Amino acid sequence: MNMIYLDNAATSFPKPRCVYEAVDRCICNYCGNPGRGSHPMALAAADKIYECREKLANYFHAASAEQIVFTLNATYALNWMIKGLLRPGDHVLISDMEHNAVWRPIERLARDGRISYDVFPTMVGEEDARLARNPTRICARIAARLKPQTRAVICSHQSNICSAHLPLSEIGAFCHRHHLLFLVDASQSAGHLPIDMQAMHIDGLCAPGHKGMYGIQGCGFAVLGERIVPDTLIEGGSGYASLDAAMPDLLPERGEAGTLPTPAIAGLCAGVSYLNRTDLTDVAAHERMLFRRLNERLQSLPNYHVYLPEHEGSTLMFHRDGIAADKIGQYLAHRGICVRTGYHCAALGHKTLRTPDGGGVRVSFGLFNRPRDVDVLYGALRDMEREMK
User: Fold this and answer.
1) 3-class DSSP assignment, residue 170
2) Which 8-state DSSP code applies to residue 255?
3) 291-349, pLDDT tens digit by residue?
4) Is 156 in contact with 315 (CB distance < 8 Å)?
5) What Rg value do the Cα atoms of the chain yield, rounded?
6) Domain 17-276 belongs in CATH node 3.40.50.1100
7) Hey, what CATH topology would domain 4-15+279-388 get?
């Protein structure tokens, strides 16, 4: 049975061949511990890591390679920035579409009495699609929730349960005018949508290496603006200033305690190179075509509801009246079709979209999906409907 993989929002598959080859070369030839020795393998590993920093800095228009800090994943990077930047008494604004990687650390700090926060509506759930795409109205809703102690606005660039994305340029300009920190979760947009740290006034951006950047699991990163240096989340060896009791003040070492995942970083480096040879406009057009194709087919099936069909992109979520999402996922899995069901670690987003108990079925496309994948999925759903009669 041929597998149809439609779960790229969780992790992209397959990877470009150059990524597999880069990981293999690292493991076989130069997988020393970077920054922990002057022998050739350690130096080669350190060189590869710096090469990846440079490529990421160029890709996201960061000020320098030193502003790239590698972490275990995007969740770790977000926790580091949130807990390392917010101070007692701060007030924070987050969007109503946030992943739990933002909501849970913010909620924990609020529960502990360290900060307070409010949720601003993005309007992606509005019936009028024109309102949902209006940056001025979104910024007005942020402005209406500002307090004297508001210090930061934190939002996902693109949702992980639909293809709606927020206007970073306008929100960033708003934050810049109001002297607020602007922190962005780019887990679903990095590699899909253009991001310019400086033009968008982004102070901190977090992303995984294994989704749209086409690296392997085991590595995420934070891209820091020039005016922030988060406090440490953990402490330990940095390969630098080993006699000091405290972590170094300088980036990137301040945020990189312990051994870095060199093979994953080597794969990410190859993934960035692949993206640099790929036109993001073509990627977005390809994903919209697949979204449109599936949406049109689902409209022909009775009792199916697609969330925010006007927001075409890499992620489509639907539910079928009378059938739990996990039952649909199990049926599709037996047919060799990989999707994700449930709440997708996005409680706020599901509340905003008013999904039923059990959540929805998420189909997420990547660069390597083809129209036939959509047709096979549609055929399986049609067979499921026939079997129910």
Assistant:
1) helix
2) G
3) 999 999 999 999 999 999 999 999 999 999 999 999 999 999 999 999 999 999 999 99
4) no
5) 21
6) no
7) Aspartate Aminotransferase, domain 1 (3.90.1150)
